[in-house]
């Protein structure tokens, strides 16, 4: 942490200028209330300094928020959210149209956004050292990052899943697949689950094995860790290659081998390396960049590609498709063989669209500026913890609140049970207005709660985990 001038305070891990000593100190209730709200939600102050890579933080925050929206709509609408506009007679609602459907159905692509951003951020500084041949600084930097990475990823997840385990042990949540007859048995089961989840040598026979038994959204974390290792091994491989073209050729060769194996996550991280090197090249060659009409034409191409990426990000799942997918069928008919059986081929296009989305934004300064705004910087700050806790908040509070609000504007409807031995009573909202009321009431209540919990967990779990990883490195490494 850098030194702070008088009047600076530290809030949520961010250095801010809280008091202007040239003016009288006025403590109006309004200012005090705003400061308390910012502190409660871990929200950044107005004078937060924007770093050159701040747009990546904002984009990561937007991606994490989109994953939240995707999961919440999945719970709210079930699989009815998936069909595209016109898939069936009953799927002509306006919210199923292309681009609009991205609001609740681009969560798949956002995982790829996470991974390419990680590949970029993890390697940009090291690539800068490679380009300037500062190998004496490069190797300690990679060693330090590798030492801390596992702790950085897994420790917050273990702590969050511990509280998830307690909700199972005390009967607050129910999951027959993991419930144990005793509290100690539950704790032991959780410890084994964490051991297998964080074990880099664990043999994953199926993709589902990546899932932490106490929080299914954590399935991306092992891939995040493995992708980090791919980045650092690749950096060591190309560390003595000063020529950018030759270095790029080596990384492209690794991309090819990942492609033919359908290894989409490693492709994302390798593309992150290529993008980081490309951005450093652009920075070094800024004086020779195109100008005038040629520059505008290039920007127009990037913007058109951005629009296409947004369109494909809304690609529906195919494995629910007992119906056609107007506007999207072509994509499922054009999937490379190595990706054909990965999520029915959908992952290929989610990977392409999510990755190119980041590339396009990196080339469009006005769009980058959008992701530097305070709300998205805030989402970037809490993004990791929001990703980990949002389903817990939904299951523990959100669903019950939704059911309560729905009961106020609903009438009972008896439906025959599947076994034909009785009926099941559902509470059905009375008309479209009632549906909208329940929907907006749910979001109005749940979003502030998720933001608050994510901010608290960021402050008291994530930030201390980062400091702990740094401290632990210092205990083992003399010059850390």
Name the descriptors:
mainly alpha, 3 domains, two-stranded antiparallel sheet, 15 helices
Structural features, described:
By secondary structure, this protein is mainly alpha-helical. It folds into 3 domains: 1-49, no CATH class; 54-375, no CATH class; 376-480, no CATH class. It contains 15 helices and 4 strands. The protein has helices spanning 29-41, 54-77, 102-105, 107-131, 135-169, 183-198, 220-238, 244-260, 264-284, 292-313, 329-332, 346-362, 365-370, 374-408, 431-476, and strands at 8-11, 14-17, 410-416, 423-429. The strands form 2 sheets. Strands 1-2 form a two-stranded antiparallel sheet. It has a two-stranded antiparallel sheet with strand order 3-4. Strand 3 (410-416) and strand 4 (423-429) form a beta hairpin. The longest helix is centred in the C-terminal third of the chain and has 46 residues, at 431-476. The radius of gyration is 24 Å and the shape is globular. The model is unreliable at 1-28 (pLDDT under 50).
Describe this structure in a few short sentences.
This is Acyltransferase family-domain-containing protein. This protein is mainly α. It has 15 helices and 4 strands.
């Amino acid at each position: 942490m850098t030194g702070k001038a008088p009047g600076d305070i530290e809030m949520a891990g961010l250095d801010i200028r809280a008091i202007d000593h040239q003016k009288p100190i006025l403590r109006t209730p309004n200012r005090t209330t705003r400061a308390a709200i910012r502190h409660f939600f871990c929200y950044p102050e107005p004078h937060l300094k924007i770093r050159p890579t701040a747009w990546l933080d904002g984009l990561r925050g937007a991606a994490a928020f989109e994953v939240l929206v995707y999961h919440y709509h999945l719970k709210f609408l079930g699989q009815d959210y998936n069909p595209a506009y016109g898939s069936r007679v009953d799927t002509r609602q306006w919210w199923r149209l292309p681009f609009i459907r991205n609001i609740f159905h681009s969560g798949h692509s956002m995982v790829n956004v996470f991974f390419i951003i990680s590949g970029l951020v993890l390697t940009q500084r090291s690539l800068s050292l490679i380009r300037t041949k500062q190998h004496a600084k490069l190797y300690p930097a990679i060693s330090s990052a590798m030492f801390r990475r596992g702790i950085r990823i897994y420790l917050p997840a273990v702590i969050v899943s511990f509280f998830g385990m307690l909700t199972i042990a005390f009967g607050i949540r129910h999951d027959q697949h993991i419930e144990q007859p005793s509290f100690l048995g539950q704790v032991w089961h959780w410890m084994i689950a964490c051991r297998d989840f964080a074990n880099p040598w664990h043999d994953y026979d199926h993709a589902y094995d990546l899932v932490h038994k106490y929080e299914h959204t954590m399935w991306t974390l092992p891939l995040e860790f493995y992708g980090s290792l791919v980045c650092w091994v690749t950096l060591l491989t190309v560390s003595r290659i000063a020529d950018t073209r030759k270095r790029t050729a080596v990384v492209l060769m690794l991309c090819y081998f990942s492609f033919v194996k359908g290894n989409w996550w490693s492709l994302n991280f390798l593309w992150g390396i290529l993008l980081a090197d490309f951005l450093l090249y652009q920075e070094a060659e800024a004086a020779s960049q195109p100008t005038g009409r040629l520059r505008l034409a290039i920007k127009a191409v990037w913007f058109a590609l951005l629009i296409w990426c947004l369109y494909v990000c809304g690609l529906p799942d195919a494995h629910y498709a007992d119906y056609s997918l107007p506007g999207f069928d072509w994509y499922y008919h054009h999937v490379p063989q190595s990706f054909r059986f990965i999520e029915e081929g959908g992952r290929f296009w989610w990977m392409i669209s999510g990755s190119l989305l980041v590339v396009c934004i990196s080339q469009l300064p006005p769009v980058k500026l959008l992701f530097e705004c305070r709300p998205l910087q805030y989402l970037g700050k809490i993004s990791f913890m929001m990703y980990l806790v949002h389903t817990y908040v939904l299951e523990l509070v959100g669903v019950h609140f939704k059911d309560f609000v729905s009961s106020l504007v609903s009438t009972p409807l008896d439906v025959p049970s599947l076994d034909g031995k009785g009926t099941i009573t559902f509470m059905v909202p009375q008309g479209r207005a009632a549906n909208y009321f329940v929907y907006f009431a749910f979001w109005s209540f749940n979003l502030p709660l998720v933001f608050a919990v994510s901010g608290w967990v960021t402050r008291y779990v994530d930030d201390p985990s980062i400091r702990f990883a740094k401290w632990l490195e210092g205990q083992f490494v003399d010059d850390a």
